[in-house]
Amino acid sequence: MEFLLPDIGEGVAEGEIVKWHVAPGQEVVEEQDFVEVMTDKATVMIPCPVTGVVGELLAQEGDVVPVHTPIATFAEVREGKLAGAHGSAAAQGAQRAAQGSASASSGGASPSAGTALLERPQERVRATPATRKAARERGLDIRRIQGTGPHGRVTREDVERAARSASGGNGRAASAPRAPARADAPAPRAPAPVAAPRSAPAPLPAPTPLPAPGADEPEERVPLRGVRRKIAEFLQLSKRTAAHYTYVEEVDVTELVALRARMKPLAAERGAKLTYLAFIVKAVCHGLKQHPELNASLDEASSELVFKRYYHIGIAADTEQGLTVPVLRHADRRSLLDIAREIARLAEGTRSGTLRPEELSGSTFTITSAGHIGGLLATPILNYPEVGILGVHKIKKRPVVVDDQIAIRDIMYLSLSLDHRVVDGANAARFMNTVVQYLEDPQLLLLEGI
Length: 450
Hints:
CATH topology of one domain: Chloramphenicol Acetyltransferase
Structural class: alpha+beta
CATH architecture of one domain: 2-Layer Sandwich
Strand content: 15-25%
Shape: elongated
Distance between the termini: 58 Å
Helix content: 25-40%
Number of helices: 9
Order of helices and strands: EEEEEEEEHHHHEHHEEEEEHEEEEHH
Radius of gyration: 27 Å
């Protein structure tokens, strides 16, 4: 009995196997921890669907697996959601996955007589995600490949052999869409930045292997997987796609420091931990309303600017697992104390890993704060497809000139990174001026009804 990777959340098409909590031959009970899977939105624990015995694990830790793809088998099923599942939703899900593999592989070379290919349209093909990917890259229909592995499993060697046979020995199907460029072929033209779909940015050049260390230079290699790999892929996409630039401003927050000190005990009586971040969120919402191009995104597929009439503020958070961005939804509708309470709730949920996927996506603008750690300023990377992210840095007493006199004031730096395709420098300055105005004179927030 095969177990398919289930639907994990709306809009989630695939997941990375982070950690198996079972092993082949292990007896399991329904609802026990089975496998930890990471998506673009969250890391979730998938429970065991049956009571029985685990057969094979069809995906390795680090594999990225499409939804409805088999990830494990059960050698014995005693009871549970998949017991007697022939013709059930589980079996139908497997059939849908097989159909998906067929459509994804369509357009490959048709095998000629004498090749080691066998069409199996009604049979579930046994193959790992990596093998399926290799077949797709070579334009091959994996259903037509004769498997030589255990129980007829299609192996990577089977794919390579079929590709050589189908293409006359060059290792790729003749009609494969990704044929390597010939030396005498003209170089392909890069697509226009706006016309290129977000899901298919220009490919990166092949990475250069790192040099081998010397005998007295010990190293440790750790696979890039899980949250760290998702962060790397996402930030690389952002840097490759958006036209980044950063605008920096100095803010005198002396009045804000004093106001927070007065309000902090009153907020505590009302069950709220009043942080500077709550004031900054309010100031940012006012700035976004007055300068809506910073609360927009660029739909590259249609070459349209999408102006958001709602204000969902992402709050970048540092966790043991890596960078996470929980979302404070409808921040403009909330009072200062409500924002403070929600920030605290999101922070606790981030630390404990209990936030729902929808609480980790959908932001329209992001704030990242490293002030509690240190650092003068930074140039944050956009939370793509957003066009703006505000970096907040530590407050430090500095000597400044006030009314021609040297005074000690509480100074903070803000760094605003933007997508120059959407936001010009002048608009960045206007937005920053609005935010600075509210932070330097926080009494203005009272007029707006904090």
